[in-house]
Write a structure and sequence with these properties.
Layout lengths: L1 H19 L3 H20 L8 H13 L2 H6 L6 H16 L13 H13 L5 H10 L6 H10 L5 H4 L4 H9 L2 E10 L5 E9 L5 E7 L4 H14 L2 H5 L3 E4 L7 H8 L4 E4 L9 H4 L1
Parallel strand pairs: 1-4, 4-5
Antiparallel strand pairs: 1-2, 2-3
Helix pairs in contact: 7-8, 11-13
């Protein structure tokens, strides 16, 4: 902006120096021509547009003229217009950005997360979803969660939840891990014991180890090896471990899984159907 003004004033100064070399007759003839052109411009519609540089240059030059000389000139703008330009410039500097009424819009990431939690957990109401968002670091009110669900036409938790036993098992199966031991006899009639884990969600069987003699120390070490072979995401996904009451499943064995946040569920004596997937 400053460079533009200096350039304009420089050109104007050169124009004045050129006028000094011209004769008085040429100057007198040029003035009526310029005034007539201004008269024609004032009759045109729409009016000519002025750039910010034009505003600054005209305001600076008109300040050099007295009130009597300004009234005698035929100008495209009036002094009142120049004052209005200045008032707009001051207002633009001190006017803060306008914000519409009401609360600011919810972030799209928050909306997507709320809808995902509601769709993947049919039994969760907006209070439960609000608690999960607080744990994830979102500072949001419970009423905001309720508003997002209502605007998306998602029913409350009791109406959209499927309370059937099959649905419950399906929803919990991803976090259930079962463990058991079976034996295999070789062609030489030697018996080997196999410790295995089965994931209820995928029905994937993981062979932990094979031995001739199952001990508590060996079973505990195989449990540690299993968790070390899983990544952090799958380890954190284990919520329950189902086992029987064999002597080699000791407190040390249970402690391996409770350390990662899993709950150990021993079956009742003589009820193998409580660990039906592993038993089968």
């Amino acid at each position: 902006m400053t460079f533009h003004l200096v350039y304009r004033f420089g050109r104007l100064l050169l124009g004045w120096l050129r006028l000094l070399a011209r004769s008085s007759a040429a100057k007198d003839a040029e003035i009526p021509v310029l005034r007539h052109q201004l008269t024609v411009l004032q009759r045109t519609s729409p009016k000519p547009a002025f750039t910010p540089g034009d505003h600054a240059l005209l305001a600076a030059l008109l300040r050099l003229l007295s009130k009597r000389h300004r009234s005698a000139l035929k100008l495209l703008v009036t002094p009142r217009t120049v004052l209005r330009w200045h008032a707009r410039l001051v207002a633009k500097k001190w006017t803060y950005p306008h914000q519409g009424p009401g609360r600011p819009a919810k972030p799209e990431a928050l909306r997507a997360l709320v809808l995902r939690l509601a769709r993947e957990n049919n039994g969760w109401g907006y209070h439960r979803i609000h608690g999960e968002l607080i744990n994830l670091g979102w500072k949001v009110a419970a009423s905001t969660v309720w508003e997002i669900l209502q605007r998306t036409d998602i029913d409350p938790a009791p109406q959209r939840a499927d309370r059937s036993w099959a649905k419950f098992l399906t929803s919990q199966a991803q976090g259930i891990l079962a463990v058991d031991v079976f034996h295999v006899d070789s062609v030489f009639l030697r018996r080997f014991f196999v410790l295995f884990f089965v994931q209820h969600g995928s029905r994937r069987v993981r062979i932990a180890g094979v031995t001739r003699n199952v001990t508590a120390q060996w079973a505990t070490q195989q449990a540690r090896n299993l968790l070390m072979s899983l990544d952090d995401t799958r380890t954190a996904g284990i919520r329950y471990l189902i086992r029987d009451n064999a002597g080699y499943f000791t407190e040390g064995f249970d402690a391996v899984f409770t350390a990662v946040g899993a709950r150990v569920v021993p079956i009742l004596p003589g009820v193998p159907r409580m660990n039906a997937i592993a038993e089968r």
